[in-house]
Amino acid sequence: MAKEQYLTEEGLKQKEEELEYLKTVARREVAEKIKIALGYGDLSENAEYDQAKNDQAALEEKIAKLENILRNAVLIDEAGDTDNKSVKVGSNVRFKDMDTDEFLEYQIVGVVEADPFNGKISNESPVGRAMIGRKRNQVVEVEAPSGIKKYKITKIS
User: Fold this and answer.
1) Strand partners, 114
2) Where would I find the Transcription elongation factor GreA/GreB N-terminal domain in this sequence (predicted)?
3) pTM of the prediction?
4) Beta partners for 141?
5) DSSP-assigned states of every residue in 70-106
6) Per-residue pLDDT for the chain (157 aa), expressed as one digit of tens each?
7) Does residue 147 sit in helix, strand or coil?
8) Which of 4, 22, 119, 138 can bridge 26 by disulfide, Cβ–Cβ 3.0-4.6 Å?
């Protein structure tokens, strides 16, 4: 059985749009590159043709990966779940770094959408994994390269 891929509604839409673009526009562009490269003659010494075929293989691999993600997508119900008693995939979590007293806020999302620089961490990351199932005011411990980090959950929404 394939692994579930948690996606927000926004993330699902983005992946669907990306797949559509790759299947239509990108495929046409690669096909055109191959057609042009074929016009250069001898394929045994045709670097443009080799590159175009490599581009085609990479594109088809990306399309297959996206199709797999969408086939195994589990939509995170961000609006319908008003139970903010514990952290789950889709939760926005505000927490305090107990070493620095710095406050951080992230949304817990699936691996596919993880983007820490934009406030989204994976449910499979060390911090995300430690937060799942925890409640407000609980302290979680996360093993980091610098040692054990402690975070206190201050808000779940």
Assistant:
1) none
2) 6-74
3) 0.75
4) 150
5) HHTEEE--TTT----SB--TT-EEEEEETTT--EEEE
6) 678 899 989 899 999 999 999 999 999 999 999 998 888 877 777 888 889 999 999 999 999 999 999 999 998 876 655 667 899 999 999 999 999 999 999 999 999 999 999 999 999 999 999 999 999 999 999 998 888 999 999 999 8
7) strand
8) 22
User: Distance between CA 89 and CA 109 in Å, rounded?
Assistant: 5
Q: Is the separation of the CB atoms in 56 and 28 below 8 Å?
A: no
Exposure string for 89-109, b = 16+ CB within 10 A, e = fewer: bbbbbebbeeeeeeeeebbbb
Encoded tokens for 122:
């994976």
pLDDT at 1: 62
The label of the residue with tokens 């016009």 reads 39
Tokens in use for 16? 């669907």
- How many CA atoms, within 13 angstroms, populate the side-chain half-sphere of residue 136? 10
CA distances from 2 to 65, 74, 76, 85 (A): 12, 12, 18, 30
Residues 6+ apart with CB under 8 A from 124: 111
Tokens of 18: 């990306």
